[in-house]
């Protein structure tokens, strides 16, 4: 397993809106202001590890806030015969001025990489993907990070375990940074 720092050229605009008829996805929900709406996010209803992480990111004492999340598990590819998965949780600093410089996220990447290096899963890669982000309601621009888990495995259940394990690792790591509380 390797942890990568990546830069995305694909900007994110917040808030964003999804088609109301798409029940597999949700429009942006400001969980910092409205944590009670977490159940409107399909992935949070299905994944306890993601739900806990969203609560931690958006807790009143947290200096961070979530911007989105997703979990996608795909059946075996005919060429590789392997299941594959992609999961992410996007977040930034709640004080939007702190997002102006992408370098403010570098310590999290390096500290997490060091903290998490003991995990050995050769079919899983983790990414801290920085992306330009526009916060339209506040007329602010800066960066956010997507914590991404990409994995290959022999079954859906194996991939579910890998994803949960790495979301839990971020959950356990964040209090060590002093950016979130332990509750």
Q: What is the 3D form? A: globular
End-to-end gap: 29 Å
- Helical fraction: 10-25%
Radius of gyration: 16 Å
Total count of helical runs of at least 4 residues:
4
Query: Which H/E pattern describes the elements?
Result: EEHHEEHEEH
List low-confidence stretches.
none
Mean pLDDT: 91
Largest sheet: 6 strands, mixed
The tally of domains stands at 1
User: For this entry, what is the oligomeric state of its chains?
Assistant: single chain
Q: Quickly give the structural class.
A: alpha/beta
Q: What is the number of strand segments?
A: 6
Q: How much of the residues is beta strand, in percent?
A: 25-35%
Notable traits:
about 180 residues; 6-stranded mixed sheet; 4 helices; about 25% helix
Q: What topology emerges from the helices and strands here?
A:
Layout: E1 2-7, E2 12-14, H1 42-46, H2 48-58, E3 64-74, E4 83-93, H3 106-116, E5 124-135, E6 140-153, H4 156-173
Parallel strand pairs: 1-5, 2-5
Antiparallel strand pairs: 3-4, 4-6, 5-6
Helix pairs in contact: 2-4
Please provide a written account of the structure:
With about 180 residues, the protein is α/β, with parallel strands linked by helices. It has one domain. About 25% of the residues lie in helices and about 30% in strands. The protein is built from 4 helices and 6 strands. It has helices spanning about 40-45, 50-60, 105-115, 155-175, and strands at about 1-5, 10-15, 65-75, 85-95, 125-135, 140-155. Strand 3 and strand 4 form a beta hairpin. It starts with a strand and ends in a 10-residue tail after the last helix. The model has no long low-confidence stretch (mean pLDDT about 90).
């Amino acid at each position: 397993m390797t942890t990568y720092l990546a830069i995305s050229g694909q900007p994110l605009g917040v808030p964003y809106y999804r088609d109301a008829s798409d029940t597999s996805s949700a429009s942006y929900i400001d969980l910092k202001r409205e944590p009670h709406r977490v159940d409107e996010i399909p992935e949070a209803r299905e994944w306890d590890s993601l739900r806990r992480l969203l609560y931690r990111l958006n807790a009143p004492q947290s200096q961070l806030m979530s911007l989105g999340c997703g979990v996608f598990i795909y059946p075996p590819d005919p060429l590789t015969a392997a299941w594959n998965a992609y999961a992410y949780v996007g977040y930034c600093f709640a004080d939007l001025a702190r997002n102006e410089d992408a370098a403010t996220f570098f310590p999290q990447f390096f500290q997490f990489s060091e903290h998490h290096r003991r995990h050995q899963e050769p079919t899983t890669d983790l990414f801290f993907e920085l992306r330009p982000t526009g916060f339209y309601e506040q007329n602010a621009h800066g960066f956010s990070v997507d914590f991404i888990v990409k994995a290959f495995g022999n079954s859906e259940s194996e991939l579910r375990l890998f994803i949960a394990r790495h979301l839990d690792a971020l959950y356990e790591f964040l209090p060590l940074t002093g950016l979130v509380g332990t509750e």
